[in-house]
Amino acid sequence: MQHKVYWIEGDGIGADIWKVTKPVINIAVQKAYQGKEEIIWEELLAGEKAFKQTGEHLPKETLEALAKAKVAIKGPLATPVGTGIRSLTVTMRQKFDLYACIRPVHWYKGIIASVRHPEKVNMTIFRENTEDVYAGIEFQSNQEETKKLIEFINKNFSKNIKEECAIGIKPMTEHGCKRLVRRAIQYALKNNLPSVTLVHKGNIMKFTEGAFQKWGYEVAKQEFANQTITEQEIREGKDPKNKIIIKDRIADAMFQEALLHPEEYSVIATTNLNGDYLSDALAAQVGGLGMAPGVNMSDNLAIFEATHGTAPTAAGKDIANPCSLLLSAAMLLDHIGLDKAASTIRNAIQNCIDKKTVTQDLAKEIENATSVLCSEFGNLLIKEIENM
Ligand code: NAD
Fold this sequence. Notes:
The protein is of the alpha/beta class and 388 residues long. It is built from 14 helices and 15 strands. The chain has helices at residues 14-33, 47-54, 60-68, 88-95, 144-157, 174-190, 209-223, 231-235, 251-260, 272-286, 323-335, 339-354, 360-363, 374-386; strands spanning 2-8, 38-43, 71-74, 100-106, 122-128, 138-139, 167-168, 195-200, 228-230, 244-250, 267-270, 293-297, 302-306, 357-358, 370-371. Helix 1 (14-33) packs across helix 11 (323-335), helix 1 runs parallel beside helix 14 and helix 11 (323-335) packs antiparallel against helix 12 (339-354).
């Protein structure tokens, strides 16, 4: 069977890590299915490569292909801070309504992590991807339209915003929050996981973050009443046996919990900005961004991507760690039903870590490790797969 997968190289280290990733995926599929399954690759242009060839960062052809696609995988895309183009990754998430950003965080044995018990970290973050302050509704300070907006708010809603303020708007809908939490609960059910924790800052932002918590509990109660139980219900004496526990934590407390009691958390459902912070922090607990995979999903399209950015200082030097993209590829293979190939890739990565031959970022985190180039690491993975 043939599986069409679109790929976007990405900026910065994108080219370095793609050179390694595609051959490893192909050989893993070949090894696992002996020619019965095959990936048909089609490149789409985005970012600087697209700009050089077409004069646009996100060409029409790319958007048209993605509008009809089911699966794609991308490298990181650069976004200037403060000025210039909007994030292409965020644009894609909004354009294709990729509302769920799913990031599993898992420790690979042998990596010296920043916490004493990284093996206790086994979480999957479901981050809402289309709403919140990421909606891009911002007004620059001291501009005419910003002053008009401030005047309107102060006058009509009895607020006292200073005239020189910059303004950001945080839109969140019941529909957007509920579909994210629904997906997180479905994932916990499918994978037989013990809990879903709603992470929010509802004590301060009551009508946005607080509503996320309220809508999250509502989904659990209205749609999964027989399969879920809340912590409150357990305290009241109800039996949690065979049920997914729905918890909620305030975002700042969750950062502490993730460090002190990671084993108590499994699936995390959270808002856009909280999810962004939390996923990098959790990745750091198990060995850093080089090992952090992810996917952005709508109900029709899944775009898999490395969680890290373009790492401009490492770009073109063949030193980046390709594992984040490779582990995202493994998620993609699971998604299209090629789970044997996915396990092949994960096992090959674990074997290289066991043998202590890794890229320089990981070599720093493994005792007596040998640091190899990105391309050399790719060749080692291929050898591991051939010898399986
Ligand atoms: P970054 O993730 O590029 O880099 C953070 C740190 O991690 C750096 O020290 C970098 O060298 C290291 N690092 C990241 N990936 C690595 C890898 N595979 N191997 C080894 N080390 C790695 O974050 P940044 O510097 O904040 O952002 C750089 C650019 O990337 C910005 O333009 C930003 O907008 C963009 N970005 C894109 C995405 C995306 O496309 N999904 C995500 C995050 C950042």
